[in-house]
Amino acid sequence: MASRARQSTATPAPRRSEGPLARSGSSALPEYQTPTYPLNPAAQRALANLTRTHDLRTLTTRLNAAQETLNTAAVDVNDRLTDRNGRVASVRQRRDKEREENGEEDEGDESLEEMERAMNEMKQKVDGMTKRMEETMRKILDGKKDVQFMEQSVNAAAEDTRNNASTQASTLNTRSQRTRQSQRNAEDEGNGEDGEDDDDDDENDGISDFQPTDPAAGTQPEQAPINIFRSKLEDAKTRYQSHSMGDRYGKDNDYINFRRAVHDAQYPGDEVPMLPPSEWFNEDGTVAAPGHTARRGGGEEDESDDDIAIEKATISTKCPLTLREFKDPISSTKCSHSYEKTAILELFGRSAHVRCPVGGCSEALTKKDLRKDPVIVRKIQRLQKAKRVQQEQDQDEDEDEEDDAPRGTQRRRAQTIDDDDAANIEDEDDDDSPMKLETQTTHSVGPPQPPRPSQAIDLDDGSDEDEVTLD
Protein backbone atom coordinates (compact mmCIF):
# COMPACT_ATOMS: atom_id res chain seq x y z
CA MET A 1 0.00 0.00 0.00
CA ALA A 2 2.82 2.36 0.86
CA SER A 3 4.53 1.60 -2.43
CA ARG A 4 1.32 2.24 -4.30
CA ALA A 5 0.91 5.56 -2.50
CA ARG A 6 4.45 6.58 -3.35
CA GLN A 7 3.93 5.61 -6.98
CA SER A 8 0.70 7.57 -7.16
CA THR A 9 2.29 10.73 -5.78
CA ALA A 10 5.31 10.55 -8.07
CA THR A 11 5.32 12.78 -11.14
CA PRO A 12 4.79 10.70 -14.28
CA ALA A 13 7.50 10.80 -16.93
CA PRO A 14 6.62 12.95 -19.93
CA ARG A 15 5.47 11.12 -23.00
CA ARG A 16 7.05 11.52 -26.41
CA SER A 17 4.02 13.46 -27.57
CA GLU A 18 4.61 15.97 -24.77
CA GLY A 19 8.03 17.00 -26.09
CA PRO A 20 9.11 20.46 -27.26
CA LEU A 21 6.64 20.40 -30.13
CA ALA A 22 3.67 19.85 -27.83
CA ARG A 23 4.85 22.49 -25.38
CA SER A 24 5.35 25.02 -28.18
CA GLY A 25 1.86 24.30 -29.44
CA SER A 26 0.37 25.07 -26.04
CA SER A 27 2.09 28.50 -25.98
CA ALA A 28 0.97 29.51 -29.46
CA LEU A 29 -0.64 32.93 -29.66
CA PRO A 30 -4.40 33.00 -30.14
CA GLU A 31 -5.94 34.38 -33.27
CA TYR A 32 -5.98 38.16 -33.34
CA GLN A 33 -9.31 39.81 -32.63
CA THR A 34 -9.97 43.44 -33.35
CA PRO A 35 -10.84 45.52 -30.28
CA THR A 36 -14.53 46.25 -29.76
CA TYR A 37 -13.97 49.49 -27.86
CA PRO A 38 -11.34 52.21 -28.11
CA LEU A 39 -8.04 51.66 -26.34
CA ASN A 40 -7.84 52.92 -22.80
CA PRO A 41 -5.18 55.49 -21.83
CA ALA A 42 -2.75 52.79 -20.65
CA ALA A 43 -2.97 50.95 -23.98
CA GLN A 44 -2.56 54.21 -25.86
CA ARG A 45 0.64 54.99 -23.96
CA ALA A 46 1.95 51.48 -24.58
CA LEU A 47 1.32 51.85 -28.30
CA ALA A 48 2.98 55.26 -28.39
CA ASN A 49 6.04 53.87 -26.56
CA LEU A 50 6.30 50.86 -28.86
CA THR A 51 9.04 52.40 -31.00
CA ARG A 52 11.01 53.20 -27.86
CA THR A 53 10.57 49.90 -26.05
CA HIS A 54 11.33 47.97 -29.26
CA ASP A 55 14.17 50.13 -30.53
CA LEU A 56 14.52 50.05 -34.30
CA ARG A 57 17.93 51.68 -34.09
CA THR A 58 19.47 48.25 -33.52
CA LEU A 59 18.25 47.13 -36.93
CA THR A 60 19.44 50.38 -38.49
CA THR A 61 22.86 49.94 -36.87
CA ARG A 62 23.20 46.46 -38.34
CA LEU A 63 22.20 47.70 -41.77
CA ASN A 64 24.78 50.48 -41.52
CA ALA A 65 27.45 47.95 -40.52
CA ALA A 66 26.55 45.76 -43.50
CA GLN A 67 26.69 48.79 -45.76
CA GLU A 68 30.15 49.76 -44.52
CA THR A 69 31.44 46.20 -44.91
CA LEU A 70 30.08 46.07 -48.44
CA ASN A 71 31.78 49.36 -49.31
CA THR A 72 35.11 48.11 -47.98
CA ALA A 73 34.85 44.81 -49.85
CA ALA A 74 33.97 46.48 -53.16
CA VAL A 75 36.88 48.90 -52.87
CA ASP A 76 39.37 46.21 -51.84
CA VAL A 77 38.66 43.83 -54.73
CA ASN A 78 38.83 46.64 -57.29
CA ASP A 79 42.04 47.96 -55.73
CA ARG A 80 43.66 44.57 -56.18
CA LEU A 81 42.50 44.38 -59.78
CA THR A 82 43.93 47.84 -60.48
CA ASP A 83 47.26 46.88 -58.90
CA ARG A 84 47.41 43.67 -60.94
CA ASN A 85 46.63 45.58 -64.11
CA GLY A 86 49.40 48.08 -63.36
CA ARG A 87 51.98 45.34 -62.74
CA VAL A 88 51.12 43.55 -65.97
CA ALA A 89 51.33 46.80 -67.92
CA SER A 90 54.76 47.54 -66.40
CA VAL A 91 56.06 44.09 -67.34
CA ARG A 92 54.82 44.45 -70.90
CA GLN A 93 56.35 47.91 -71.25
CA ARG A 94 59.70 46.75 -69.91
CA ARG A 95 59.86 43.73 -72.20
CA ASP A 96 58.83 45.77 -75.22
CA LYS A 97 61.68 48.17 -74.46
CA GLU A 98 64.15 45.30 -74.14
CA ARG A 99 63.11 43.90 -77.52
CA GLU A 100 63.52 47.31 -79.15
CA GLU A 101 67.00 47.72 -77.69
CA ASN A 102 68.05 44.24 -78.78
CA GLY A 103 66.41 44.55 -82.19
CA GLU A 104 64.27 41.46 -81.62
CA GLU A 105 60.89 40.82 -83.16
CA ASP A 106 57.73 40.38 -81.14
CA GLU A 107 57.43 36.61 -81.27
CA GLY A 108 55.21 36.36 -78.21
CA ASP A 109 56.02 35.89 -74.56
CA GLU A 110 54.38 32.90 -72.94
CA SER A 111 54.88 34.12 -69.39
CA LEU A 112 53.45 37.54 -70.22
CA GLU A 113 50.50 36.00 -72.02
CA GLU A 114 49.84 33.83 -68.99
CA MET A 115 49.87 36.89 -66.74
CA GLU A 116 47.42 38.70 -69.01
CA ARG A 117 45.17 35.65 -69.18
CA ALA A 118 45.08 35.41 -65.38
CA MET A 119 44.39 39.13 -65.15
CA ASN A 120 41.44 38.86 -67.57
CA GLU A 121 39.97 36.02 -65.53
CA MET A 122 40.38 38.07 -62.38
CA LYS A 123 38.70 41.03 -64.08
CA GLN A 124 35.66 38.95 -64.98
CA LYS A 125 35.34 37.72 -61.41
CA VAL A 126 35.77 41.18 -59.92
CA ASP A 127 33.24 42.70 -62.33
CA GLY A 128 30.70 40.04 -61.41
CA MET A 129 31.32 40.52 -57.69
CA THR A 130 31.05 44.29 -58.03
CA LYS A 131 27.74 43.97 -59.85
CA ARG A 132 26.32 41.68 -57.15
CA MET A 133 27.57 44.00 -54.42
CA GLU A 134 25.87 46.92 -56.16
CA GLU A 135 22.59 45.01 -56.12
CA THR A 136 23.09 44.16 -52.45
CA MET A 137 23.78 47.80 -51.69
CA ARG A 138 20.41 48.77 -53.19
CA LYS A 139 18.70 46.08 -51.10
CA ILE A 140 20.34 47.43 -47.94
CA LEU A 141 19.11 50.92 -48.77
CA ASP A 142 15.62 49.51 -49.35
CA GLY A 143 15.82 47.84 -45.94
CA LYS A 144 16.75 51.13 -44.30
CA LYS A 145 13.73 52.72 -45.96
CA ASP A 146 11.50 49.89 -44.70
CA VAL A 147 12.67 50.52 -41.14
CA GLN A 148 11.84 54.19 -41.57
CA PHE A 149 8.38 53.33 -42.95
CA MET A 150 7.72 50.93 -40.06
CA GLU A 151 8.48 53.59 -37.48
CA GLN A 152 6.28 56.11 -39.27
CA SER A 153 3.42 53.59 -39.51
CA VAL A 154 3.56 52.76 -35.79
CA ASN A 155 3.48 56.45 -34.93
CA ALA A 156 0.55 56.97 -37.31
CA ALA A 157 -1.39 54.12 -35.67
CA ALA A 158 -0.73 55.54 -32.20
CA GLU A 159 -1.85 59.02 -33.27
CA ASP A 160 -5.00 57.70 -34.95
CA THR A 161 -5.88 55.67 -31.88
CA ARG A 162 -5.42 58.68 -29.62
CA ASN A 163 -7.55 60.90 -31.86
CA ASN A 164 -10.22 58.21 -32.19
CA ALA A 165 -10.38 57.76 -28.42
CA SER A 166 -10.87 61.49 -27.86
CA THR A 167 -13.58 61.58 -30.53
CA GLN A 168 -15.39 58.63 -28.98
CA ALA A 169 -15.18 60.21 -25.53
CA SER A 170 -16.69 63.48 -26.75
CA THR A 171 -19.43 61.56 -28.58
CA LEU A 172 -20.29 59.55 -25.48
CA ASN A 173 -20.45 62.73 -23.41
CA THR A 174 -22.82 64.30 -25.93
CA ARG A 175 -25.03 61.22 -25.94
CA SER A 176 -25.19 61.04 -22.15
CA GLN A 177 -26.07 64.72 -21.91
CA ARG A 178 -28.86 64.32 -24.47
CA THR A 179 -30.18 61.25 -22.68
CA ARG A 180 -30.28 62.98 -19.31
CA GLN A 181 -31.98 66.03 -20.84
CA SER A 182 -34.63 63.91 -22.54
CA GLN A 183 -35.31 62.06 -19.29
CA ARG A 184 -35.80 65.31 -17.41
CA ASN A 185 -38.16 66.61 -20.08
CA ALA A 186 -40.18 63.42 -19.96
CA GLU A 187 -40.49 63.59 -16.19
CA ASP A 188 -41.66 67.20 -16.34
CA GLU A 189 -44.30 66.44 -18.94
CA GLY A 190 -45.47 63.38 -17.07
CA ASN A 191 -46.14 65.25 -13.88
CA GLY A 192 -48.41 67.85 -15.54
CA GLU A 193 -50.35 65.76 -18.03
CA ASP A 194 -51.19 62.46 -16.38
CA GLY A 195 -54.73 62.38 -17.74
CA GLU A 196 -53.73 63.11 -21.26
CA ASP A 197 -51.01 60.49 -21.08
CA ASP A 198 -53.56 57.87 -20.13
CA ASP A 199 -55.65 58.72 -23.19
CA ASP A 200 -52.58 58.71 -25.42
CA ASP A 201 -51.53 55.35 -24.06
CA ASP A 202 -54.90 53.90 -24.94
CA GLU A 203 -54.67 55.26 -28.46
CA ASN A 204 -51.03 54.16 -29.06
CA ASP A 205 -51.27 50.65 -27.66
CA GLY A 206 -50.76 49.13 -31.12
CA ILE A 207 -47.86 51.41 -32.17
CA SER A 208 -44.25 50.34 -31.44
CA ASP A 209 -41.72 52.72 -29.89
CA PHE A 210 -39.56 54.70 -32.34
CA GLN A 211 -36.01 55.95 -31.49
CA PRO A 212 -34.82 58.86 -33.71
CA THR A 213 -31.27 58.88 -35.10
CA ASP A 214 -28.77 60.91 -33.10
CA PRO A 215 -26.95 63.35 -35.46
CA ALA A 216 -23.87 63.24 -33.22
CA ALA A 217 -23.62 59.48 -33.68
CA GLY A 218 -22.72 59.80 -37.36
CA THR A 219 -19.02 58.99 -36.89
CA GLN A 220 -16.88 56.65 -38.98
CA PRO A 221 -16.44 53.10 -37.71
CA GLU A 222 -13.31 52.59 -35.64
CA GLN A 223 -10.29 50.91 -37.26
CA ALA A 224 -8.05 48.52 -35.37
CA PRO A 225 -4.47 49.77 -34.77
CA ILE A 226 -3.04 46.78 -36.63
CA ASN A 227 -5.08 47.63 -39.71
CA ILE A 228 -3.93 51.25 -39.59
CA PHE A 229 -0.31 50.12 -39.28
CA ARG A 230 -0.57 47.75 -42.24
CA SER A 231 -2.36 50.23 -44.48
CA LYS A 232 0.16 53.01 -43.72
CA LEU A 233 3.09 50.68 -44.30
CA GLU A 234 1.76 49.37 -47.60
CA ASP A 235 0.99 52.88 -48.82
CA ALA A 236 4.53 54.06 -48.01
CA LYS A 237 6.10 51.06 -49.76
CA THR A 238 3.89 51.52 -52.80
CA ARG A 239 4.81 55.19 -53.13
CA TYR A 240 8.51 54.36 -52.74
CA GLN A 241 8.43 51.58 -55.35
CA SER A 242 6.49 53.78 -57.77
CA HIS A 243 9.48 56.12 -58.10
CA SER A 244 12.10 55.44 -60.74
CA MET A 245 15.43 53.88 -59.77
CA GLY A 246 17.13 57.17 -60.50
CA ASP A 247 14.93 58.94 -57.97
CA ARG A 248 15.33 56.17 -55.39
CA TYR A 249 19.09 55.70 -55.55
CA GLY A 250 20.53 58.46 -57.73
CA LYS A 251 19.84 61.03 -55.00
CA ASP A 252 20.80 58.83 -52.04
CA ASN A 253 24.12 59.92 -50.52
CA ASP A 254 25.01 56.39 -49.40
CA TYR A 255 24.57 55.00 -52.91
CA ILE A 256 26.43 57.94 -54.45
CA ASN A 257 29.38 57.38 -52.11
CA PHE A 258 29.43 53.69 -53.02
CA ARG A 259 29.63 54.46 -56.73
CA ARG A 260 32.30 57.12 -56.17
CA ALA A 261 34.42 54.79 -54.04
CA VAL A 262 34.29 51.97 -56.59
CA HIS A 263 35.12 54.34 -59.44
CA ASP A 264 38.07 55.76 -57.50
CA ALA A 265 39.37 52.23 -56.91
CA GLN A 266 39.09 51.36 -60.61
CA TYR A 267 40.48 54.67 -61.87
CA PRO A 268 42.76 56.19 -59.19
CA GLY A 269 43.49 59.28 -61.25
CA ASP A 270 41.07 62.02 -62.20
CA GLU A 271 41.64 61.60 -65.93
CA VAL A 272 38.66 59.24 -66.33
CA PRO A 273 35.38 60.95 -65.36
CA MET A 274 32.54 59.08 -63.70
CA LEU A 275 29.10 58.80 -65.23
CA PRO A 276 26.64 61.37 -63.85
CA PRO A 277 23.83 59.97 -61.66
CA SER A 278 21.31 60.59 -64.43
CA GLU A 279 23.05 57.91 -66.55
CA TRP A 280 23.42 55.24 -63.88
CA PHE A 281 20.04 53.66 -64.64
CA ASN A 282 18.63 52.81 -68.03
CA GLU A 283 15.03 53.15 -69.12
CA ASP A 284 14.57 49.37 -69.28
CA GLY A 285 15.42 49.06 -65.57
CA THR A 286 18.98 47.83 -66.02
CA VAL A 287 21.82 49.40 -64.07
CA ALA A 288 25.12 50.57 -65.50
CA ALA A 289 27.85 48.66 -63.67
CA PRO A 290 30.02 50.73 -61.33
CA GLY A 291 33.15 51.87 -63.10
CA HIS A 292 31.57 52.69 -66.45
CA THR A 293 33.08 55.97 -67.51
CA ALA A 294 31.62 59.03 -69.12
CA ARG A 295 32.41 59.81 -72.73
CA ARG A 296 33.77 63.27 -73.12
CA GLY A 297 31.56 65.26 -75.40
CA GLY A 298 30.29 68.74 -75.97
CA GLY A 299 31.95 71.20 -73.68
CA GLU A 300 34.07 68.48 -72.07
CA GLU A 301 36.08 68.03 -75.27
CA ASP A 302 37.66 71.44 -74.69
CA GLU A 303 39.02 70.33 -71.33
CA SER A 304 42.79 70.42 -71.59
CA ASP A 305 45.50 68.63 -69.66
CA ASP A 306 46.15 71.84 -67.74
CA ASP A 307 42.57 71.83 -66.48
CA ILE A 308 42.98 68.24 -65.32
CA ALA A 309 46.22 69.15 -63.56
CA ILE A 310 44.51 72.08 -61.84
CA GLU A 311 41.69 69.79 -60.71
CA LYS A 312 44.24 67.43 -59.15
CA ALA A 313 45.96 70.29 -57.39
CA THR A 314 42.76 71.32 -55.60
CA ILE A 315 43.16 68.45 -53.13
CA SER A 316 45.55 69.41 -50.36
CA THR A 317 47.17 66.92 -48.02
CA LYS A 318 47.55 69.45 -45.18
CA CYS A 319 44.97 70.75 -42.73
CA PRO A 320 44.25 74.49 -43.08
CA LEU A 321 44.15 74.79 -39.27
CA THR A 322 47.20 72.79 -38.14
CA LEU A 323 49.19 73.17 -41.40
CA ARG A 324 50.25 69.56 -40.94
CA GLU A 325 49.61 66.43 -42.95
CA PHE A 326 46.15 64.96 -42.54
CA LYS A 327 45.72 62.02 -40.18
CA ASP A 328 41.93 61.87 -39.75
CA PRO A 329 40.35 64.26 -42.28
CA ILE A 330 36.67 65.13 -42.39
CA SER A 331 35.00 67.13 -45.15
CA SER A 332 32.30 69.76 -45.33
CA THR A 333 29.09 69.12 -47.22
CA LYS A 334 28.62 72.84 -47.91
CA CYS A 335 32.03 73.55 -49.42
CA SER A 336 34.76 71.38 -50.91
CA HIS A 337 37.16 71.75 -47.98
CA SER A 338 38.57 69.22 -45.54
CA TYR A 339 39.96 69.62 -42.04
CA GLU A 340 41.64 67.61 -39.34
CA LYS A 341 38.87 66.17 -37.19
CA THR A 342 40.27 67.13 -33.79
CA ALA A 343 41.19 70.64 -34.93
CA ILE A 344 37.82 71.56 -36.43
CA LEU A 345 35.87 70.07 -33.51
CA GLU A 346 37.82 72.21 -31.06
CA LEU A 347 36.38 75.29 -32.76
CA PHE A 348 32.84 74.04 -32.14
CA GLY A 349 33.53 73.92 -28.42
CA ARG A 350 33.17 77.68 -28.37
CA SER A 351 30.11 78.14 -30.58
CA ALA A 352 27.54 76.11 -32.51
CA HIS A 353 28.42 77.78 -35.84
CA VAL A 354 31.92 78.14 -37.26
CA ARG A 355 33.02 79.89 -40.41
CA CYS A 356 35.10 77.77 -42.78
CA PRO A 357 38.75 78.43 -41.86
CA VAL A 358 39.93 78.26 -45.47
CA GLY A 359 40.76 81.69 -46.84
CA GLY A 360 38.17 83.07 -49.23
CA CYS A 361 35.39 80.72 -48.04
CA SER A 362 32.49 82.30 -46.16
CA GLU A 363 30.39 79.19 -45.47
CA ALA A 364 28.98 78.87 -41.94
CA LEU A 365 29.37 75.29 -40.73
CA THR A 366 27.78 73.19 -38.02
CA LYS A 367 28.73 69.75 -36.77
CA LYS A 368 26.00 68.24 -38.93
CA ASP A 369 27.72 69.65 -42.02
CA LEU A 370 30.87 67.60 -41.38
CA ARG A 371 31.25 64.00 -42.48
CA LYS A 372 33.95 61.57 -43.44
CA ASP A 373 34.21 61.28 -47.21
CA PRO A 374 35.87 57.94 -48.04
CA VAL A 375 36.82 59.04 -51.55
CA ILE A 376 38.54 62.20 -50.32
CA VAL A 377 40.35 60.15 -47.67
CA ARG A 378 41.57 57.73 -50.34
CA LYS A 379 42.79 60.56 -52.55
CA ILE A 380 44.63 62.23 -49.67
CA GLN A 381 46.27 58.98 -48.63
CA ARG A 382 47.29 58.30 -52.23
CA LEU A 383 48.85 61.76 -52.57
CA GLN A 384 50.67 61.37 -49.25
CA LYS A 385 52.04 58.02 -50.35
CA ALA A 386 53.21 59.48 -53.66
CA LYS A 387 55.00 62.26 -51.76
CA ARG A 388 56.79 59.77 -49.53
CA VAL A 389 57.85 57.66 -52.49
CA GLN A 390 59.11 60.73 -54.36
CA GLN A 391 61.08 61.90 -51.33
CA GLU A 392 62.66 58.48 -50.93
CA GLN A 393 63.59 58.39 -54.61
CA ASP A 394 65.09 61.88 -54.45
CA GLN A 395 67.10 60.92 -51.39
CA ASP A 396 68.38 57.76 -53.08
CA GLU A 397 69.34 59.73 -56.20
CA ASP A 398 71.25 62.28 -54.10
CA GLU A 399 73.15 59.51 -52.36
CA ASP A 400 73.93 57.83 -55.68
CA GLU A 401 75.21 61.10 -57.14
CA GLU A 402 77.48 61.61 -54.16
CA ASP A 403 78.83 58.07 -54.46
CA ASP A 404 79.30 58.26 -58.25
CA ALA A 405 80.79 61.78 -58.30
CA PRO A 406 84.43 61.93 -59.70
CA ARG A 407 87.15 62.37 -57.15
CA GLY A 408 88.42 65.53 -58.83
CA THR A 409 85.13 67.34 -58.46
CA GLN A 410 85.74 68.40 -54.90
CA ARG A 411 89.34 69.29 -55.77
CA ARG A 412 88.24 71.55 -58.57
CA ARG A 413 85.72 73.25 -56.32
CA ALA A 414 88.32 73.77 -53.62
CA GLN A 415 90.80 75.04 -56.20
CA THR A 416 88.26 77.52 -57.50
CA ILE A 417 87.71 78.85 -54.01
CA ASP A 418 91.50 79.19 -53.60
CA ASP A 419 91.69 81.08 -56.88
CA ASP A 420 89.03 83.49 -55.69
CA ASP A 421 90.97 84.04 -52.53
CA ALA A 422 94.13 84.55 -54.58
CA ALA A 423 92.37 87.13 -56.72
CA ASN A 424 91.42 88.99 -53.60
CA ILE A 425 94.95 88.77 -52.30
CA GLU A 426 96.37 90.22 -55.54
CA ASP A 427 94.50 93.42 -54.78
CA GLU A 428 96.58 93.90 -51.65
CA ASP A 429 99.99 95.55 -51.32
CA ASP A 430 103.05 94.24 -53.17
CA ASP A 431 104.69 93.35 -49.87
CA ASP A 432 102.26 90.46 -49.48
CA SER A 433 102.93 88.97 -52.91
CA PRO A 434 106.15 87.09 -51.99
CA MET A 435 104.36 85.50 -49.08
CA LYS A 436 101.58 84.49 -51.44
CA LEU A 437 103.97 82.95 -53.92
CA GLU A 438 105.82 81.20 -51.17
CA THR A 439 102.62 79.73 -49.85
CA GLN A 440 101.64 78.49 -53.28
CA THR A 441 105.10 77.02 -53.78
CA THR A 442 104.97 75.27 -50.46
CA HIS A 443 101.57 73.65 -51.08
CA SER A 444 102.07 72.90 -54.74
CA VAL A 445 102.84 69.31 -55.66
CA GLY A 446 104.14 68.26 -59.07
CA PRO A 447 104.28 70.63 -62.03
CA PRO A 448 103.40 74.27 -61.53
CA GLN A 449 99.76 75.29 -61.88
CA PRO A 450 98.68 76.97 -65.13
CA PRO A 451 97.50 80.57 -65.08
CA ARG A 452 93.95 81.43 -64.11
CA PRO A 453 92.39 81.73 -67.58
CA SER A 454 93.65 78.31 -68.58
CA GLN A 455 92.44 76.98 -65.27
CA ALA A 456 88.89 78.14 -66.01
CA ILE A 457 89.09 76.41 -69.38
CA ASP A 458 90.16 73.21 -67.67
CA LEU A 459 87.06 73.34 -65.45
CA ASP A 460 84.80 73.77 -68.44
CA ASP A 461 86.45 70.88 -70.21
CA GLY A 462 86.04 68.73 -67.15
CA SER A 463 82.31 69.46 -66.93
CA ASP A 464 81.88 68.60 -70.60
CA GLU A 465 83.64 65.30 -70.08
CA ASP A 466 81.35 64.53 -67.17
CA GLU A 467 78.28 65.17 -69.31
CA VAL A 468 79.57 62.89 -72.03
CA THR A 469 80.31 60.20 -69.51
CA LEU A 470 76.78 60.42 -68.03
CA ASP A 471 75.20 60.15 -71.46
Automatic annotation (TrEMBL):
The keyword Magnesium does not apply. CDD domains: SPL-RING_NSE2. InterPro entries: Nse2(Mms21), Znf_MIZ, Znf_RING/FYVE/PHD. One of its GO terms (biological process) is protein sumoylation. It is found in: Nucleus. Residues 101-113, 188-206, 393-404, 417-432, 458-471 have a biased composition (Acidic residues). Residues 1-39, 87-127, 156-250, 382-471 are annotated as: Disordered. The keyword Heme does not apply. Residues 114-127 have a biased composition (Basic and acidic residues). Residues 170-184 have a biased composition (Low complexity). Belongs to the NSE2 family. This is SP-RING-type domain-containing protein. It comes from Lecanosticta acicola.
